[in-house]
Amino acid sequence: MKNKILSLLESDSRLTSSKIAVMLGIEEGEVKAAIRELEDENIILGYNTLINWELAGRETTRAHIEIKLTPQRGGGFDTVAERIYKFPQVKSVTLISGAFDLLVTVEGKSLKEVAMFVSERLAPMESVVSTATHFELKTYKKDGVLFTEKEEDNREVISI
Predict the structure, then answer these.
(1) What are the boundaries of each domain within the chain?
(2) Which fold has domain 2-40?
(3) In terms of CB atoms within 10 Å, which end of the chain has fewer, N or C?
(4) For the chain, counts of helices (H) and of strands (E)
(5) Could you report the per-residue pLDDT of 111-120, keeping only the tens digit for each?
(6) How much is the pTM?
(7) Contact 21/12 with Cβ under 8 angstroms?
(8) CATH topology of domain 60-137
(9) Poorest-pLDDT segment among 35-39, 55-59, 145-149
(10) Strand partners, 134
(11) Which residue pairs from 12-17 have beta carbons closer than 8 angstroms and sit at least 24 positions apart in sequence?
């Protein structure tokens, strides 16, 4: 039951416990108790709203930075990741496989602001061996949601 509740909330965090109860055919109290338990266990960490900031008129620049590291003695990658995720510009930090060790998503007001953050804050860290920065140019789909609607061709077909 908890996994079904999690799946429903992941697809639409605005669902009320009463709607979830109807969808699953259980009592609302059961849903509320399960959600409270999932929050207490840090399985549900928060409720987010996905916003198309471009349409909202807010200019932001987002970049994904691949970072190659030398792991810290006694802390491995975790110590460095913790130092990085404390910066307010950092939206996410993920340990990855491949040629790089961390994937860091950063947001700033401009391309220059993000570039300065990488060159002044990330690159000089003692454990950082190298970085590769990839700026987002356009978002088509995020978290399963399409950001751009395809225009439908409403012209009538004429055949002779």
Answers:
(1) 2-40, 60-137
(2) Arc Repressor Mutant, subunit A (1.10.10)
(3) C
(4) 6, 6
(5) 999 999 999 9
(6) 0.79
(7) no
(8) Alpha-Beta Plaits (3.30.70)
(9) 145-149
(10) 64
(11) 13/47, 13/48, 13/49
